[in-house]
Amino acid sequence: MRKRATAKEVADAAGVSKWTVIRAFTPGASITEESKRRVLEAAAVLNYTPNLLARSLATNLTHQVAVFVDDFANPQKLPFLETLTERLQAEGLVAVLININNHFDHVHALLNADQRQVDAVILFGTAFRNETLSDRQLGRGMPPMFVLARDSQIDGVPAVVCDAELALRDIVDHLYERGYRRPGFMTGAPALSTALRRRQHFIDFWKGKGVDEIAILSADRYSAEAGAGSVRHYLNDIDPAARVDVLMCENDILALGAMDEIRGNFGLRIPDDIAVVGFDNYELGGASCYGLTTYEQPRIEMVQAVIGMIKGRLEPETVTLPGKLVVRTST
Predict the structure, then answer these.
(1) Which residue range or ranges hold the HTH lacI-type domain (predicted)?
(2) What mean pLDDT is reported for the chain?
């Protein structure tokens, strides 16, 4: 294996001290232009780059952020992860993606992240238990945690989330104005300490308009297949005269699966027989074959907020940001 050039070798070549080399690669450090020029020229000749892991021993910062994900089947995760990793890298931070699953639970993941000395942990999934994250193995020295894109119900863990109350008010107002009066709601995977609260707001706003009967459909995970299966079970079991006239799904992936099932296997028209609404504004939902009405989360602003807390520019507190209703042909 190629032997890496050291800071001492660069210092000898440039005729300066090792600490001058370190200052030359430290943003904002005090160093003369002439010394910095000599260091950078010697570094280029020796193909030297600073060892960030070694530097972290002195700064107590590794510039690594662990991102915990537990529902990779949900394709809406990808746009968020793209924005998150891009913005982290722009800040000089690196994302360490950790897959939470049956073989690697949250406690093991947190202990592993702590051993790697990550600067922070972002919980970006559905099933983070308060009692699990409060496990006695996890002490005070653990890195700070933040929840992204879901409400946090974990003490001391702030969240950055789209304003669900505002979103559902806008959605229900739109549906009511269009004349729908028999609403239904499809939930996704059961959430634990990081909930969405979309269903409850949906129910509350309909009740505020005098509509008390709301059908609740359940999907066991966030996938098109689960959305199709949930609506199939509902349509098979309900009398056609009693069917909902509008179905809101907790996210777009469920909605797309439901739409395929409603039209493909039951021959119903959207929105004439059943209107459909999603949430997240997933790109495929905008295709002409779907025309899915949805709600767009402020993805960039949410990512900027959580990174601002990690970098210390913002106070670590729960932040709620407004999104926007996107009306298409499905309603």
Answers:
(1) 5-59
(2) 87
Asked whether 105 and 90 are in contact (CB, 8 A), the reply is: no
pTM of the complete model: 0.79
Sign of the Cα pseudo-torsion (226, 232, 237, 238, in order) = positive
| pLDDT band, residue 189 (cuts 50/70/90) | confident
Contacts of residue 150, Cβ cutoff 8 Å, sequence gap at least 6: 123, 126, 159, 161, 191, 194, 195, 196
3-state secondary structure of 230: helix
Angstrom distance (rounded) from CA 64 to CA 36: 27
> Which value, in Å, is the radius of gyration of the alpha carbons in the chain?
25
Structural domains present in the chain: 7-50 (no CATH), 62-162+299-322 (3.40.50.2300), 164-296 (3.40.50.2300)
Contact (Cβ atoms closer than 8 angstroms) between residue 299 and residue 83: yes
- Residue 246 — φ and ψ, nearest 5°? -150, 135
